[in-house]
Structure prediction request, 206 residues.
Amino acid sequence: MGTTVRATKPPQPVATPAGLPLRVFTVDEYHAMINAGVFDGGRRCVLIHGMILEKPLPGPPHSTATQRLNRRLSSLFPETQWVVGIQDSITLADSEPEPDCYVAVGPDSLYHDRHPGPKDLVLVVEVSDSSLSVDRGTMLALYASQKIVQYWIVNVNDRRVEVYTQPRGGKNPTYKQQTNYGVNDEVPVMVAGKEMGRISVRELLP
Prediction:
């Protein structure tokens, strides 16, 4: 049965020890820094609410679940009509996260000079082990605020997939519906009310 989801608010800029506010960046400024090579050298960074954060390296369970999810989504969405991204950027109002998987409308030629945005995305997925509180809090609120229609958390530790739908924006963005699928269940993959197929939770989890 679906339940109402409560999300934490986006993180707020904090004061430095000198008492000065933390500098936040626009998406365009972030792109300029990438083009200038600021993040060269193997660092994986993302922009979340104007703040540049370094991403931790995923552990083996996280990588295994991400790869399995990518293979199963790719089998359901023909590449002539859809784009399935794995740990690639999406561009939002003040953020540029790299969800573990996403599905966007195709063809891929739409994204030769830009990343997918909220209106392109039909599904965003985070694989969560050590990052569960962030994925249920900051990331859930971020995706809901952009009206991304469907957000999944592949919850490795609790061995389930959490499906969030019916985004609500405003001051406290959230998803109004949450449905949990356990290890013996299959998750229906829905796009605009049409079932594209089903994915076994057991087959996703390491």
